[in-house]
Specification:
Elements lengths: L4 H15 L19 E6 L1 E5 L3 E7 L10 E9 L9 E6 L2 E9 L1 E6 L4 E5 L3 E5 L4 E7 L6 E9 L10 E5 L5 E5 L2 E7 L1 E2 L2 E2 L10 E7 L5 E4 L5 E8 L1 E4 L4 E4 L2 E5 L4 E5 L5 E8 L7 E3 L2 E3 L2 H12 L7
Antiparallel strand pairs: 1-22, 2-3, 3-4, 4-11, 5-10, 6-9, 6-11, 7-8, 7-10, 9-12, 13-14, 14-17, 15-16, 17-24, 18-23, 19-22, 19-24, 20-21, 20-23, 25-26
Amino acid sequence: MSLSRRTFLTSAGLALAAAATGCAPGQAPAVLRRSERRVLQSFAGMPTTDGAGVRLLRIIGQPALRHLDPFLLLDRFHSDDPDAYIRGFPDHPHRGFETVTIMRAGRMRHADSRGNRGVIEGGGVQWMTAGRGIVHSEMPEQQEGLLSGFQLWVNLPAREKMCAPAYQDLEPGRIARGALGASRIEVAAGAIDGLVGPVEKRPTRPLLAYVSLEDDQPVRLELPEHHTAFVYVAEGEVEVGPGRDQVVEGRLGLLGPGHRLTVRAPSRRTEVLVAAAMPLREPIVQRGPFVMNTEEEIRQAFLDYRAGRLGRD
């Protein structure tokens, strides 16, 4: 069952209120402790197909979890069977949000209606701002072998939905990497443990990291307190927070509010995608590849696409 916006905001408020401490007359002010994030709810991905029949796991954007403001979609693709991915994602439009392609293995070639072209390598990230519109394709740049990664959709605020399209193509060597004891972290956006990701400033102030836990020692990450945040376990299992809330492979853990995230792999090597961003708290009207604030704006997006205007100006 998905967590309603009211429930999420109420729980956030209660957690913040509990963190505040008062002082009796004559006492020194209490020191505010760094609050730990906990797992509010866990969601399993739903197998589906998209593009030209690519098989993938949809985590955000499915009936159990339609949206997670400002996150609109999270897909995982992971297969060494070419039949599962070889037909890729031919030309398709977007308007009103940003797509983030996180490649873990393999290569993906992209091209668009404005003449942009390039290849996203394993270990690299592409942050595409669709803005007022783009028509693009994403096709595997290989005939065999493992293709693995994620696509994350991040909403844009109403004031920026019709901005000019833009790309941030981040080669593997540009991703900030560091050690956390025996474990490792890669930061694409935001700042964690002194590492600053290369993604330029975005409206939702995102944080995006990939953590590889190599032993059972806890890893502690500072997160913006009021950001919507989640962990997705790509491999293994993790325990989160002081209550050691468990999130297993293939599931997303929705995190409550707090300053810090603590994750621990209790039994084996584990890989975790960590994402956080500022909620927009604006109306979401989505029809397939278009995400706007009103039905009228959606109708205009379809009119522009059918008329060949979308992605051409």
